[in-house]
Amino acid sequence: MARNKLAVISIAALVAYLLPVERARADDDPDAIVSVNGQLNFVEQYHPAFHAPYSGPNSLDPGSRGDETFALSALIGLRLWSGAEAYAGPEIDQGFGLSKTLGVAGFPNGGAYKLGSSTPYFRLHRLFLQQSFGGDSPGGDRLVITAGKFAVTDMFDTNAYAHDPNNDFLNWAVIDSGAFDYAADAWGFTYGLAAEWTKAWWTLRTGLFDLSRFPNTTALVRGFGQYEIVSEIEARHEFWGQPGKVKLLGFVNRGRMGSYMDAVALAAATNSVPDIALVRRPAFRPGAALNIEQQLDGDLGAFARLSWNDGSEEAFEFTEINQSVAAGLSLKGTSWSRPGDTVGVAGVVDEIARSAQSYFAAGGLGILIGDGQLHYGTENILEIYYRAALMRGLAISFDYQFIADPAYNRDRGPVSILGLRLHADF
What we know:
By secondary structure, the chain is mostly beta strands. It has one domain (2-18, 38-425): Porin (Beta Barrel). It has four helices and 16 strands. The protein has helices spanning 2-17, 172-175, 260-270, 354-361, and strands at 34-47, 65-81, 84-95, 117-134, 142-150, 190-198, 202-210, 227-239, 242-258, 280-295, 300-309, 323-333, 338-351, 379-391, 394-404, 415-425. A 16-stranded antiparallel barrel has the order 1-2-3-4-5-6-7-8-9-10-11-12-13-14-15-16. α3 runs parallel beside α4 (354-361). The longest helix has 16 residues, at 2-17.
């Protein structure tokens, strides 16, 4: 079924690709009191059968498999008073990531949440107030305060070339820093307060956000009973006349979390499989990320991300990655007369700490991974995509990902994942 859908949409995309592309779009009315922007995103992914001598509860299915995700969302803005705006972000979601979003630490579908549904359902993912002080003129100071429900990654760890799973790369460890364990519910959103102060060539951001009540769950702690503090400094520059940015981010999570070694020790003492939930206690978990983007010419850009977190404690919100290095290139299609198109290539190397290796080797389960055993290796990922603009507000992307040692397991894989993405703005 998945392959039939891919074939039908691919043929339609090929026909549309050959049609003239309308590239002009009207600017938003700067005087409008109400703004409404919407988008639709459909992702179909498929992988053929791959080598796997064993599987666990959180393994990627080794059989031939396809899954899809669908999201229809809007961002509604209301101008309240000078510098103040309120936003609401309703969304309708449906579908599943491959193997119900399990089996790969650097998961291949940025449109997949950690829970899925075969029927569409409604969520209000964003509801926040934003107050700005100062102007937008070059060299001027500007302070923006944001409070309410939104995604930490709406403001932090952004990158011009690798951050939007609706339009660029799809892999989690490419669109975000893999070891940035940012506060979020199972859909990727949380309540928080953030400030952004911008000067001529630099910006400082800081925020306080609610963690989940328990790691990787749908319910958030209210009132910052468990919390994340995150700060980021951004420096803007020009190299050889081309703009670029360097961002350094630090975060610390404070909540009830388990030590991998405590879980392994308890399992050894009781002759059982490690269960991280049995050893949770209040603890801190720090981390950091370096995020670089650099335009090389008018059409070509490069990016890199390096990130780390404390691997002695369990992953709380995002995924089981303790160290990650990602880098890639993004090229617009001007040279082949398709300026609205983009091709991108990225490589990722993800690692987990020794304590995490011991936990998963003994049969422990995490947020996304857990094969029941572990013959450890780094999780190496290659992603290539081509995004073709079909007409105004409509694009289709073809995506390929090669994942060696999925879930850090040399006994399983490699796996090739074919993807097709349809995106519309309105």
